[in-house]
Amino acid sequence: MTRSAREVELTLRLPAGGRAILEANSVLAAATPKQFHQVTTYFDTPDGVLNEAGLTLRVRRIGVNRIQTIKSLSNGRGVARTRREWEWRIGQTTPDVGRLAKVRRLARVASQIQDRLEPLFVTDIQRTARTINLDDHTVIEAVIDEGTIEAGAGCEAVSELELELKAGCVAPMYRLAAELQMTTPCWASPESKFSRGLQLRTGHTASAHSPQTIPLRRRTLAADGFHQILGGALGHLMANIAPTLRGASEAVHQMRAGLRAARAALQLFERHLDRTTVQGFDTRLQHFAQIIGTARDWDVFCVQTLPAAAAELPANALRGLKSAAEVQRQAAHAVVVKAVHGQAFTALVLRLAVWMEALAAQPSVLSNKRMGKRLRTLAPSLLNRVDRKARNRARHVDRLSARELHSLRKSLRKLRYAVDCFSGLFRRHAVKAYCARCEQPLELLGTINDAVVAQRLAEHLATNQRPDLRKSATILALWCKRRSRKARLGLKGALSSFRAAPTFWS
Question: Within this chain, do residues 329 and 464 fall inside the same structural domain, yes or no?
Answer without folding.
Answer: yes
